[in-house]
Amino acid sequence: MRKLFGIATVAMLALGTAILPAMAADTLKIGYVDPLSGGGAAAGQIGLNQLKFIAEEINGKGGVLGKQVEIIPYDNQLDPQVSLVQIQKAIDQGVRIIVQGNGSSVAATVESFVDKFNSRNPGKEVVHINHAAIDPSLTNDNCSYWHFAFDANVNIKIEAMTNFMKANAAIKKVYLINQDYSFGHSVAGAAAEKLSAEGSSIEVVANEFVPLQKVTDFSPYIAKIKASGADSVLTANWGNDLQLMIKAAGDAGLSVNWYTFYAGLAGTPTAIQQAGMEDNVFQITEGVNNIDYKPMQEKVKEYIAKYPDSPIYYPRLFTAMGMVFKAVEEAESEDPVKFVPKLEGMRYANFIDGKEGFMRPDDHQYFQTMYISGFGALGADQPFDEEGTGWGWKVAAAVPVDDTIVSTTCQMKRPE
Amino acid sequence: MIEIIFISTLNGILFGMLLFLMASGLTVIFSMMGVLNFAHASFYMLGAFFGFEISRHVGFWPGLIIAPLLVGGIGMFVERYGLRQVHKHGHVAELLFTFGLTFIIQEVVQMVWGKLAVDYRVPPMLDFPAFTVFSTQYPAYKIFELLTAIAIFLVLLLVIKRTRVGLVVQAALSHPEMVGMLGHNVDRVFMLVFGVGAGLAAVAGVIAGPALVTQANMAHSLGPILFVVVVVGGLGSLSGAFIASLLIGLLQTFAVASNASLADLFGELTGTGMFIAHVSDIWNVTVAQLSAVMPYLLLVLILIFRPRGLMGTRES
Predict the structure, then answer these.
(1) Is B272 a domain residue?
(2) What average pLDDT does range B198-227 have in this prediction?
(3) Taken in order A347, A353, A354, A355, is the CA torsion positive or negative?
(4) Contacts of B122 in chain A (CB under 8 A)
(5) What is the CA angle B14-B15-B21, rounded to 5?
(6) By the 8 A CB rule, do B207 and B64 touch?
(7) Which domain does B33 fall in, by range?
(8) Are residues A161 and A148 in the same domain?
C-alpha cells in the first residue's frame, strides 16, 4: 500500500501540469493511458500525437455536444499496476472515457478493473476503448460490457491471412517461424491448424520458435528455411526479431515470400528496403495509406505535415474516436451508461477506406475490411512511402468484412 | 548433411567474429584496468550513431576512423572526470557508475536521433555477395567484419605483448605505485586504456550498425552476451576472448541447426494425466529453442569447473 501511495505521489507530481487545465473548464475528457516513457514510449507517443490531432480537428468544428474535447495523457509505463493507479487518477479528474491499447496484459488488467469499478460505483461508470491489444481472450472468455476492441484480434488476422494464402496456388510449402512465448505459440498453433486443414494444398514444412528478442544472428535460421525448400514464411515476429531476420535473408539471397503481422511497425520498412526484399514482404492490417480513398489521403497528408518526424498513425484510432463521438452525440450524453448502448452494434464508415464496419454487440469486437499489402516501389497513383525509403505498402488483397467474422465464446453480462 | 555442417560452421565463425569485434574493447578495459564496464554496449551504440551521422555527410570510411576517435575521446573524458573519482570507492562503485552511464547515454541518443531506427547502410563498395556456397550467398560486408575482427585481435596482441606501452600498462595494473615511481603517469595510462576500449566498442558499432539495426535500443538488445564471452575466455585474456567468441558463435549456430529433442532420443511419452502433460512440454523442446540459453549454460559450467576461464591467469 505504501508503495502504491509512493507511485501515486510521484505520478501526481509528474503530471501536475496536466491536472490544472483538466479542472479549468467543462470539457469532454479523454484519458489516454499508454506508455509515454521506457521501452514502449515510441508506440505510445504515436497514439498521443494522433489523439491530439483528432481533438484539434473536432474542436475546430465546435467539439462534441458543444463541448471541447480534451486529451489527458497518463503514462502507464506499459505496466498493469501503474495503469491502475493512473486510471484511478483519471477517474478522480472526471475522465469517463479511457483510451488504452498497448500490451495485451495491460489491456486485460484494465478491462477487468473497469468492469469491477463500474459494478461497484454506479453513476460513475467509465468505458475502456482498446485500440491495439489483440489477445482473443479480451473479447472471448474475459469479455466485458465496458470494453471495446477496435483492432482485429489474433483469430481474425489468422483467419484472413491463411485464407489468402490458401487461395494463392503458388504457395505450396510454408515455414512457420515465431517467437518463443505465449503470443508466438498461439499464432503458430492456429496457423498450422488452418493451413493444413482439409482441402488445403499447403504443406507446413516446419514450426520453428526463436527465443524472444535474444537473437543477433539469424543466418542459421535462414539456412534452415532454405534447406526446408519452403516458398513462403509465415511469422508473427516483431521488432528486432523481424528486422534482423529479413536482413539476414537478404544477405543470404534467400528468395521466399514473407507473410507477417508486424512488418509495418516502426523500423521494419527501413530494414526490408535495406535487404532489397521488393514485393516479397506482406502484412495484414486494417488498411494502408495507398488505398485509393481521397478523404483518408487528404487527412493523412495533413497529419504527416503536422508530425513530419513521426508520420506513423493507427487508422483504427481515427475510426474508434469517430465512433465514440458519434455515440455520445446520438445519446446526447457523455455518460457511458447512456452512450455504450449506441456504440455496441454501431455501423460506421472506416477511416481508411470509407467501407462500412460494425461493432458486434455479442463481444464488442469491431469488424472491418482487412487488407493484405506488399511492400515495394510505388506506382503513379500510390503517393505514400514509408520512413523515407521510397517504397510503400500496396494492397495485394482486401478481405471483405463478411470474410473476417469469427465466432466468440463471450457471454456478455449487461448491467440491469 | 555436409551442407548443413559446412554452412553452420561458416555462419558460426562469422557470428563468432562479430562477437569478438563487439567484446574486444570490453576485454581490453577489463584486463588492463580491472573495471567491468557496463556502459560498453552504450559506447558501441554511440559508435553506430556517430558512424551513421558521419556516413551521411562524408561517407562510411571516414566514419570508421572519426567515430571511434570521438567515442574514444568521450571515453577518456568519462574516465578522467567520472570513473577516476569513483575508483577509490572500489569495484562496486565503478560498476554502478558505468551502469548509470548506460541510461544517460540511452536517453541522450533518443533525444538526438529519436526512437526509430535510422537508415544506416552498408557502403556500396562492399554491398555485393562475395561468394556463394550451396546456393547461399555470403555478402562481402560479412567478410569485411571477419577480417576487421582478426586485424584488431592481432594488433592488440602485438601492442600488449610486444611493445613498451603494453608493458607499462600491464605493470600499472598490478603495481601502480611502482610504475608511478618509475616516472610513468599511471592516471594517464588508465585514461588512455579506457579511451581505447571505448574506441574499440565504437569500431564495432560503426561496423555492426549497418549489418544489424541502428536504433536507440541496440545497446539494450545486445544484452549480456559480451560478458559471457569475457568470462568464458578468462577474465582479462585477449586470446581467451577470441576463442570464446568462436566457441559461442559455433555453439549457437549448431544449436539452431539441430531439431533434436528428448522425444527424439527416448521416444514420445505415452500416458495421460497432469504429470505427463507438464513433462511432455519439456520433452518436446528442441535444441534450437534452447540456442539462446547455450552461452549461459557454458558460462555456468565454466564458472563451476574452471573459474579462471579458458585462458585466464587469475582466479577472479
Answers:
(1) yes
(2) 86
(3) negative
(4) 274
(5) 90
(6) yes
(7) 2-305
(8) no
Q: What is the pTM of this model?
A: 0.84
On chain A, the residues whose CB falls within 8 A of the CB of B121 are 274
Question: What single DSSP character describes residue B118?
Answer: P
**Chain B residues touching residue A244 (CB < 8 angstroms):** 212-213
Contact call for residues B236 and B30 (beta carbons, < 8 A): yes
Smallest Cβ distance to B117: which of A180, A216, A267? A267
Put simply, the answer to whether B257 touches A224 (Cβ < 8 Å) is yes
Q: In the predicted model, is pLDDT for residue B286 greater than 90?
A: no
Minimal Cα–Cα distance from B23 to chain A, Å?
14
Local structure of A119: helix, strand or coil = helix
Q: What is the ipTM of this complex?
A: 0.85
Residue A1: the pLDDT is 47
CB B150 within 8 A of CB B17: yes
Q: A356-360 and A365-367: which strand pairing?
A: antiparallel
Q: What is the pLDDT of residues A327-361, one digit of tens each?
A: 999 999 999 999 999 999 999 999 999 999 999 99
Contacts of B213 in chain A (CB under 8 A): 240, 243-244, 247, 267, 271
The pLDDT, as a whole number, for residue A74 is 94
d(CA A42, CA B204): 26
CATH number at A46 reads 3.40.50.2300
pLDDT, residue B316, reads: 44
What does the alpha-carbon distance between residue B46 and residue B49 come to, in Å, rounded to a whole number? Answer: 5
Mutate which of B215, B228, B250, B252 to disrupt the A interface (most A C-beta within 10 Å)? Answer: B215
Nearest C-alpha of chain B: how many angstroms from A171? Answer: 21
With 0-12 / 13-18 / 19 or more C-beta atoms within 10 angstroms meaning exposed / middle / buried, residue B166 is middle
CA angle A34, A74, A28 (to 5 degrees): 105
The verdict on residue A55 lying in a domain is: yes
Report chain A residues whose CB lies below 8 A from the CB of B222.
216
**Number of folded domains in chain B?**
1
> From the list A211, A216, A251, which residue is nearest B139 (CB)?
A251
Q: What Å distances lie between residue A178 and A211, A260, A374, B283, CA to CA? A: 9, 10, 20, 20
Nearest CA in chain B to A214: B292
Residue ending a domain, choose from A233, A266, A285: A285
Question: What local confidence, expressed as pLDDT, does residue A2 receive?
Answer: 52
For residue B223, give the chain A residue with the closest CA.
A214
A176 plus A205 within the same structural domain: yes
B314 neighbors B286 (Cβ within 8 angstroms): no
Q: A203 or A240: whose pLDDT is higher? A: A203
Q: Is residue A14 one of the residues assigned to a domain? A: no
- Beta bridge partners of residue A71, listed in sequence order: A30
